[in-house]
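Milestone 3.1: sequence recovery, worked example.
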């Protein structure tokens, strides 16, 4: 049999799986008021949830209450979550350091880290629209020399090996395989660097993924991992946990308020509350050292 060149040529490997294309489609189309209206307040656009006690007076009738106050309160709680994550990146970060934001969305987290430490930040998102939006925001703030967003795959960033003092995923781990993700963080982080994630995970002590967890997966096209898998995958990839915090009780007030924010609800609010309350789902902070 004669083997032709066509037969021996390497099979073409798509740089992006069909799944990843569907995820990118979601984020390229996403315009939820709960993200855009909150972000508009101070041009910090987040794609994560909130933590902390709610000021319930925003729900009162009368002067000084109403939709705008609820919007501002939800944004305050999301901002508190972003600040908690940033505070874990390592107190000794300096303006010459670089940090990596895996699954950066519209860019808020990298801006928060830059404002706190003066550091360089590289954010990566699979959505072209999000990367363009985030870069425009950085340009408007005049920080585009230090904060840059890239339309790339967080599993294969092409960024410089060992160049990063800290890195994180803020609610973006559920879109990828953890072994591949942590291998890329371990490659990018210098020895002694810090990795932080805030994530929703399913609770091994409950069993497998509950109905509510499955509904959340369907809503966002994601695949929520069990809690145990984080620690297994970190251990396999030179990431050693130094701090773990269950934020479930801290995020429930955010969801209770969001459920009552008629102008902002997306329909997933009750599912989150049920998932947290029935113990099948947990909101977790994990901080690890790259060894
Ligand atoms: C929030 O994004 C986070 C995700 C979609 C990832 C899934 C997170 C889990 C903890 C399961 P968003 O801010 O765009 O969502 P929403 O539009 O609902 O506010
Ligand atoms: Mg949101």
């Amino acid at each position: 049999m004669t083997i032709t060149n066509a037969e021996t040529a390497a099979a073409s490997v798509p740089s992006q799986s069909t799944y990843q294309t569907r995820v990118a489609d979601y984020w390229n189309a996403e315009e939820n008021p709960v993200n855009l209206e909150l972000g508009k307040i101070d041009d910090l656009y987040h794609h994560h949830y909130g933590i902390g006690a709610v000021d319930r007076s925003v729900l009162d009738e009368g002067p000084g209450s109403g939709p705008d106050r609820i919007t501002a309160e939800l944004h305050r709680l999301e901002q508190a979550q972003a600040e908690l994550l940033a505070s874990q990146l390592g107190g000794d970060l300096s303006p010459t350091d670089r940090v990596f934001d895996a699954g950066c969305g519209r860019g808020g987290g990298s801006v928060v880290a830059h404002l706190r430490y003066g550091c360089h930040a590289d954010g990566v998102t699979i959505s072209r629209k999000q990367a363009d939006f985030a870069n425009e925001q950085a340009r408007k703030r005049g920080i585009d020399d230090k904060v840059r967003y890239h339309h790339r795959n967080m599993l294969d960033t092409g960024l410089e090996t060992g160049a990063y003092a800290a890195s994180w995923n803020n609610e973006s781990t559920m879109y990828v395989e953890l072994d591949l993700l942590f291998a890329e963080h371990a490659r990018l982080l210098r020895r002694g660097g810090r990795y932080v994630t805030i994530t929703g995970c399913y609770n091994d002590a409950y069993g497998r993924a509950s109905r509510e967890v499955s509904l959340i997966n369907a809503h966002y096209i994601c695949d929520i991992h069990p809690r145990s898998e984080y620690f297994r995958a970190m251990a396999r990839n030179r990431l050693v946990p130094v701090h773990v915090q269950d934020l479930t009780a801290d995020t429930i007030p955010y969801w209770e308020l969001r459920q009552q924010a008629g102008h902002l609800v997306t329909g997933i609010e009750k599912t989150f509350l049920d998932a947290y309350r029935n113990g099948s789902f947990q909101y977790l902070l994990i901080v690890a050292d790259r060894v």
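The longest helix spans residues 67-87. Residues 27 and 126 are 8 Å apart (CA to CA).
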